[in-house]
Write a structure and sequence with these properties.
The complex is a heterodimer of chains A (about 80) and B (about 230).
Chain A lengths: L1 H6 L4 H39 L2 H10 L1 H13 L1
Helix pairs in contact in A: 2-4, 3-4
Chain B lengths: L5 H33 L13 H28 L2 H33 L7 H22 L6 H25 L19 H36 L5
The chains are: A mainly alpha (about 80), B mainly alpha (about 230).
Chain lengths: ~80, ~230
Amino acid sequence: MIIEFINMGGYGFYIWTSFLIVTVFCYFLYYKTKKTLKKYELELATELEKLPVEQRNRIARSSKVISNILASQNKLS
Amino acid sequence: MDFFSFGNIIVYIDKFIKFINSIFFLVLIIGLSFALIISPIDYLQGDAVRIMYVHVPSAWIGLSIFSIIAIGTLFNFVFKIKNLYLFVKSLAPIGLLFTCLAIVTGSLWGKPTWGTWWAWDARLTSMLILMLFYVFFIITFKIFKDSEKLPQILSAISILGAINIPIIKYSVEWWSTLHQPASIKIIGTSSIHSSMLVPLFLMLLVLLLYCALIFLMKYKTEIIKIKKKNIKRL
């Protein structure tokens, strides 16, 4: 039964290759996108860390994006 | 308009990403079960019809994203809405991926059903042209990223690419092609049975969730890039 399922009536090669290609390329784009996002989040957080605490807090209060990034980085560390 | 500020958008992006992550694998398993096990075989094509469940949604997504990009770019050219740039820039790689996947899976479907991997048929060629438009669009963003000419160039590519969209859609009716005519019609009766339509829409849902996830992550990256650039001004 498993062999029948893999064989897919003789079209197994075409069917499994199609699904595999879609999976591999979708995962590749997901991995690359996530990696880039994490890289920029980390870079922004590092630049903020370099600032004096007072200035950093002021920026975090005035910008939701910055406070969001700082919060997510704090959760990770 | 404060609702559309980057600060609010980023909060909702995180919520949407969490939501998609929580349901994605469940929807994926249901979709794959229907596509590979539950759905019936075709009386002519046999099991080869299962390739449809990845090929057709990929093609739909590739076409839809370019249509959205074209409208977004033209809107931006006329109304100068800067957020739209980030929007179309984040969408383009997803559209390119799915257009390529539609071509590759179509080729894998073509071999057992038509006896050939590729033919210079109107539908296949117009899809290849769409892929090239996506490539031009993405390359333009990279080459002219700081140029004032960027909106004009992107609008030109979008208009030319948008002309290709109805050509792709109606190519199977205008010319005698190897590719079959559309089985699913928005207006009128579809010639596909519900036992095949359900898996098709489930797989479309899976791929749409994936697209939303990638789009949100890319959009968030673009927002962070802007904030990083402007950090000294804050």
